[in-house]
Every structure is written in structure tokens, then in C-alpha cells.
């Protein structure tokens, strides 16, 4: 097996701001970057047409491209129909920004897909994703749901109810290993028609956990990245670890991505750890061993 995929890095994983993070991504050997675009300096509302053009040119001057933007709005995802109109609009603006910056992918969490297909929460998710999917499809783009909150087969059954593939998948094998205990290799084959972006991350699961305790749900605390970071670093239930030290079977996982013909980015995400740059640099080298 010889991987030909480009290697990406989530700029925010460095924890040093966007511009410095972009330079650091180039320094560690990445081909591209993913950037959070929800608030602060990357909020779509904060970036004029000229600022977008300048940022795109700056990224290109570093010899990088954008693999995706992260448009994860947190909270209850799209489970709460009263909050959805504003969240759908914000998501569309993030996709507009992505297109202006040269990528057609925005990754997101939509909230856990419930088992009850007739319930209000399922309907709320479906309605929001249908609108987002049609908007994305209209411009040849994708909103990519991150794997982890539910098992791959259940996510596929939900995606199959939508009229387009404008809502697709950002495949994260570590989330599956840590939270649902799902098999990421099997998951690649199940979701093969929807995978448009991937995260490269590793983790260990120590005991079973209700995904709603991690990712939030109506009736539970809303999803909070700070809380998740604390959970993955504490090691009480699961733990995110450097690549190769966890339970993601990378040989088989990368082989599965090749088997389905995945040509997109392998984007390194490091949500925890005291020395992100060292871990990310090592992760780039880890992936390079497969090239």
C-alpha cells in the first residue's frame, strides 16, 4: 500500500492563532490546512471580500491550500428546531466563505441522530440537513458530518434519507474507537459513498459511554469543545493519544480508504496534549511512512 493523499493539519490545534498556525503547518510539512471559521477573526461576518482575497493569497504564498473549514456551531447541533433557522443561515455563510477561500468542504457536527425516525428531533435534523445539502449541492460543495456520535450504519441510514449528497461525511476513526466502539475499517466501507474529508487521530476507549454525555443532546448538556477536550485528556472514559499509540488500526484503515478510492485529505487533528507541535510533527511523519 502506498498512500498518495495530501496531508492536512488543523491550524487551531497549534493554539497560536490563524496566521502563526498557518506558518507552523507549513513548517511541520503539511500540504494543506483546516481552519475553524465560526467566531473571532475567521467568523464570516468579520471577513470582507478584500480580506478573504488577501487570506487566500497568503495561504497560497505559503504553498498551502485549505482542505476544509470547520463550521461546527456546537450546542445541540441541529436537534433544536427553534435554533435551526439561525444555525442554518450561519452554516451557509461559512460555506460561502469556504468557497471564497478555495475549498468546497465545511465539516460540522449535526447532533446525535436518534433511533426514533418518527420523532421531532430526527425530523429537525433531517429538515436542516436537507436545506443545507441542497444549498451545498447547488454550488458543488459539501457539509461533512463528523463520525463518532453514532455508529456508521446508523449515520448512513440517515444520510440515505436526504435528496442529495450535499451533506456527506468527515470520517474521524478515533471518535468511533473512543465513543461508540464502532469499527472504523468497516465504517469506511459502509460510508464509502459519502466520505469527502477525513481526520487522522488516535484514541483508546476504557469503558462504555453514552454518546449523549459526550456530544450533547436535547435534555442533556449541549456539546462543548472544552468539555470534550477535558474528557479526551483525562482518560477516565477514553483518551486521545498520539498516532500509533491508540486503537485505530491504521494499516487497515488507510488500506480501506484506498480500497474505496478516497483521494481527499488526511487531516491531522490534535485536540489535547501539552506539546501539540511535537505531536503534529510526529503525526506528519507517521502518515509519511505510508507514502
Automatic annotation (TrEMBL):
Residues 22-289 form the Xylose isomerase-like TIM barrel domain. It holds the Pfam family AP_endonuc_2. This is Xylose isomerase-like TIM barrel domain-containing protein.
